[in-house]
Amino acid sequence: MTPLVQVRNLRIGFDGKEVVHGVDFDIAAGEKLALVGESGSGKTITALSLLRLVPNAELSGTASFFGPEGPPVARDLLSMPERELRGVRGREIAMIFQEPMTALNPLYPVGDQIAEVLELHEALGKREAQAAAVQLLADTGVPEPARRARSFPHQLSGGQRQRAMIAMALACKPRLLLADEPTTALDVTLRVQILDLLDKLQQQHGMAVLLITHDLNLVRRFADRVAVMEQGRLVEEGAVATVFDAPRHPYTRKLIDSRPVRDVVAVPAEGAGRQPVLAARGLRVSYPVPRPGLRGWFGRDAFVAVQGADLAIARGETLGVVGESGSGKSTLALAALGLLPARGELRIDGRGWTRRTAADRPLRRVVQVVFQDPFSSLSPRLTVEAIVGEGLGVHGGAPDGAARRERVLAALADVGLTEAQFPSLLQRYPHEFSGGQRQRLAIARALIVDPELLVLDEPTSALDVTIQKQVLGLLQRLQRERGLSYLLITHDVEVIRAMAHRVLVMKDGAVVEQGVVDQVLDAPQHPYTRQLVAAALAE
What we know:
- About 35% of the residues lie in helices and about 25% in strands.
- The protein is of the alpha/beta class.
- It has three domains: about 5-90 and about 175-255, P-loop containing nucleotide triphosphate hydrolases (Rossmann fold), CATH 3.40.50; about 105-175, no CATH class; about 315-340 and about 355-539, Rossmann fold.
- The longest helix has 18 residues, at about 190-205.
């Protein structure tokens, strides 16, 4: 096949310390190559180095980028002048970043941001560029593209923001697209839609794609070839079917075998007088929204985010809540935590939220939460001792000094973090830990006050497959040992299968189906549940 990019002996370092060690790989014209590995494997900085987008990186080796006519005409992306490289970025090689909310400028409408690329690289006038931007949004499946072009990034859904990023990347019809985890933050149905869109656009434009991901299901569905990176080295490369069916390297086998494993015990039967940890009936949560036009001066309308939900969680049970973005599942979790006012009946351990700080404090010990992104939910200014021990200061249970420190160390040991592994563990800060280790810190912070119910809000969606498996195994062990109940919010059907006893499916704020996990996922009754399960199988 005609080569488009040939990378030879690529080495990347920072302050004299090498992190990518002599990587070689080729990308053919029109080919889809997936670069996979865990966080820290070097896959993202390898891709970013092709456009020299890594600040202060020390680069060596070559990255030959061949012209449309193929060999022998080639330019070295690593050594070409910055002025020439600016002409390549966006026009010949484009990039889709992992998180569109941070990659898009929040101060400008998305149409203006797409038009800017066309004005810069294609020398279009402002009006022509705006019209082309609207057409690009339409081509990527954004509804009402003319209106959405005038919208700011925060006014779009996650899937629409990702489509706007794709439209911007494809504005100049590049010959190579670098896609860095383009579907990580999306729901299962949106992931399939974005994959299908990229596949269609790749075939239409005949461009090559370098996909950076840790999602092996995505690789199976999308890529022609796969290259596996471990600790800055390329350990295996080949056709997707060959590598997945007969992996040669132990690390590749480890990645492929890192699917969530179900290891939960049956829930004890509820005896007489035993009440559920959480019970809700007719639960309704609404938000005030402004009325359009002059009517907004005289009052507000209400947006109903959760309508008439009935649910219960027994002691030692996991209830999985699944649905797309906007389905109401996170609002349901916030109501359970007493962080949003709700109508209807909602009881935690037989008591309801009063929305009075002092009166609700005992309940806040009973129900704790583990958030999706531990890096943003842990204060970067507090030490591990302060973060994990904070709950003891609020709810009591251990005085200051040695007794509290012992409780903190015990909670950390429960989640697999010890001073033998991490010297001066209590004095460390969150940035000194990996993503999986930070999530363990978040779990320890929740466990230290001996809760009965944990609300798990997408606890593994930001983690690599191997780390996800470890964290799920930890949560399963803690449930068996402590009899914990979990309210698990996720869009990952595999995580639901591994963790949940029962599952509740939400769409547009309503519960459309619930029941025992095997019955709901293996024989779904509602069309929306069937759509979710089919999308998960299609990945």
